[in-house]
Design brief:
mainly alpha, 14 helices, 0% strand, MsrQ-like, transport, transmembrane, membrane
Length: 200
């Protein structure tokens, strides 16, 4: 019973929704700076869930005999969709906080702003096509489309790092460093397997 409850998709969605509870309470508190104060948390959780989703494949390669990476792999799309919705909340809160200024040339031309916008726009088709129906409809093209998440990740890293005159570099690197290490391992492992096949 406990295992079936833990494995149920709704349980995982509930876990992914937990950070949104204090955010929602803060937004409905009536505080004048509620939208502004939630910009960082929503953006950070969007990045965190994206990073976790991207880490799953190299983790499966690293821990081949472990069951937990496979458990995560079955839920990777949930993580991606959750990342999108936190990014959507981040974007909406930014628009509320900045108002008309958000669309001015001086604002949009900032590195930390336009990188965020492009990353979000990349997220949109990835989230829309995350359903089983779209996976079947797109076939092999679905995986090619999902590769754009790497561009979104790089843009998100720059967006985060460039905040407050590059004051976000430390936090951004702390979050993205594990992903970078695992991706390097994935590339190395893939290259080793190709070399082994060539030799045999």
């Amino acid at each position: 019973m406990l295992k079936s409850t833990w494995d149920h998709p709704l349980t995982f969605w509930a876990l992914l929704s937990l950070p949104a509870i204090p955010m929602t309470l803060g937004l409905t508190s009536g505080a004048p700076d509620a939208a502004s104060s939630l910009l960082h948390p929503t953006g950070e959780f969007a990045a965190r869930f994206m990073i976790i989703a991207m880490m799953i494949t190299p983790l499966m390669m690293l821990f081949r005999d472990a069951s937990w990476p496979r458990w995560l792999m079955k839920r990777r799309r949930y993580l991606g969709v959750a990342a999108f919705f936190y990014a959507l909340a981040h974007t909406v809160l930014y628009l509320i906080d900045e108002g008309a200024i958000a669309f001015t040339g001086g604002e949009v031309s900032k590195l930390n702003i336009w990188t965020g916008w492009i990353a979000f726009l990349i997220f949109v088709p990835l989230a829309v096509t995350s359903t089983d129906a779209w996976v079947r409809r797109l076939g092999r093209s679905w995986k090619k489309l999902q590769q754009f998440v790497y561009a979104a990740a790089i843009l998100t890293l720059i967006h985060w790092a460039a905040l407050h005159d590059w004051g976000g570099v430390g936090a951004a690197l702390v979050h993205f460093a594990p992903l970078a290490v695992l991706e390097m391992y994935r590339l190395w492992s893939t290259q080793q397997r190709r070399r082994h096949r060539t030799l045999t």
